[in-house]
Amino acid sequence: MRITSKKYILIDKIMRRDTLKSKAGTTLVEMLIAMICLGIISLATYELIVRTQTINATLNAWNLLTEWGQTAINTISVDLTSGRVLYQDDAVGQTYISQLESDTAYPMLSTRTLPLIDASGDFGRDTSISRTGNALLFAVEAPPFITTPLDVPRRVDVYRLVCYYLSPVNKPIGKMSSSLRLVRWESKEFADYQQVMSMSGATRTNFVINLYYERGIRYLWIGRNLPDNAFYAIDEYGDISGSPEAYFTIPKDSLTNVINSLGLGSASISWNSSDDFWPPDTVPKFANGNSVGNGFPHGLEVQIIGPSGARQVMVRLVLAYFINMDNSIYSNESFTIITLKEY
Asked: Which of 194, 250, 269, 289 could form a disulfide with 180 if both were Cys (CB 3.0 to 4.6 A apart)?
């Protein structure tokens, strides 16, 4: 019995010693190793989070640029399908675009230029002759006006002017001090002057009265004339001005930012490729770019080719998105080619 008792006492002492050792805590070396492991894990986790955020931001930028670019191109294409008169970089076109009613909230880029129509050429890079523009001005056919003055059915064509141009906004993007928006300008409606004047007497008078009240039209228009020789005022009594409106400002009906998210600091119509702005898509692609003034042409390039009966309008649009996290610029290129017949 005594031997057994001593045996239990020895076991108890051993167990107490092991318990004391376990309560002694970790050593400094063990703590340092644990801290180093924790630091490595934290750093790896942080890098993974940053990388994931950058990837998500990149994918989001690509998706948005693709969606916005296609929306803008579709809008331009729909307008061009009903186009009837295209204006180019000549005396008529330059005068028309300079006399559009302006809006201080959507100023035109000072270097805006209409394309030069090349009736026998093809799309391609400009050489010694600059054909590419960074603005687009044309007349679209609106629904005609049909009425029956004095019980005689009459029909007259109605038009609107539409202009797409770049507008700077005071929102830095990348190293640039401002961003670029794509603006759509649309005029009031104008009725065809020659068609109205082909009527006579009371028929014409009553038609003009109906045109004035039912459609809200205030001017008749000759599309190929210079603006100061193209617009004739009408009044509520059916009278037509005997002479065109001099120094005429072409009245606007609407003015919209084609892509609302552009010009807010993260996204923009691309500036020309440079050390300060580096989109993956080369800008310009067709025009001979320059940095004079506000530069030309940037991410909107327009060319027009073909005879009047089969004009082809090519529009290239490059959007850019700046991501602060990795100081990167992403871009998306969209194209359309529309064929139309000028009258």
From this structure: 269
